[in-house]
Amino acid sequence: PRGGANSLKMAAGLSITYTVYFTPEADTDYECDLVAYTDHEKFIVPVRATGSRGHLTLPDVVHFPNAPIKATSRTTVLLTNTGTKPCKFKASTVAPFNVQPAFGQILPQQNQQIAVEFTPTTLTRYESSV
Q1: Strands 73-81 and 111-118
Q2: Once rounded to an integer, what is the mean pLDDT over residues 101-126?
Q3: Do 70 and 60 form a contact (C-beta atoms < 8 A)?
Q4: Quick one: three-class SS letters along the chain?
Q5: Lowest mean per-residue pLDDT among 14-23, 38-47, 118-127
Q6: How many angstroms separate the CA atoms of 80 and 100, rounded?
Q7: Which of 79, 77, 78, 82 is nearest to 108 (CA)?
Q8: Digit-coded pLDDT (tens) for 72-112
Q9: 20 φ/ψ angles, rounded to the nearest 5 degrees
Q10: What is the mean pLDDT of residues 34-62?
Q11: Cα–Cα separations (whole angstroms), residue 83 to 31, 36, 80, 115, 118
Q12: How far, in Å, CA of 129 to CA of 61, rounded?
């Protein structure tokens, strides 16, 4: 509300700085808007605080041994949710790579194995990054 107990009038051209301290009551997302009024304008400053999230860890690199053309080579990758909230994942690949399952959800401190397949179509070096 305008003109309340927490209002402050300033001369034109001066600036003022406020520090907002936030102490969450729960591990969740918070949002609010700080509203500042001048004689001619209203400013809305959005304040957002993000709670914990899932945190997915996986290997930096997945290596496959040399494989015959048109033969499928498979390796298993372990995904681990080291966060405190459930974590959803969705994997996408391009041929000749494939991932199963391509999506899912991992609970906190749990893990899931995914199969990564490689089926080369020509004799060449293959690399892919996601």
Answers
A1: antiparallel
A2: 91
A3: no
A4: CCCCCCCCCCCCCCCCCCCCCCCCCCCCCEEEEEEEECCCCEEEEEEEECCCCCCEECCCCCCCCCCCCCCCEEEEEEEEECCCCCEEEECCCCCCEEEECCEEEECCCCEEEEEEEECCCCCCCCCCCC
A5: 14-23
A6: 16
A7: 82
A8: 989 999 999 999 999 999 998 888 889 999 999 999 999 99
A9: -100, 120
A10: 86
A11: 22, 37, 9, 22, 30
A12: 9
CATH number for 80: 2.60.40.10
Report whether 130 contacts 91 (CB < 8 A): yes
| 97 lies in some domain | yes
d(CA 24, CA 68): 57
Give the tokens for residue 61: 């690199």
> Domain range spanning residue 92?
56-118
Tally the domains of the chain. 1
pTM: 0.61
Sorted by sequence, the CB contacts under 8 Å of residue 84 that are 6+ apart come out as 27, 52, 54, 108
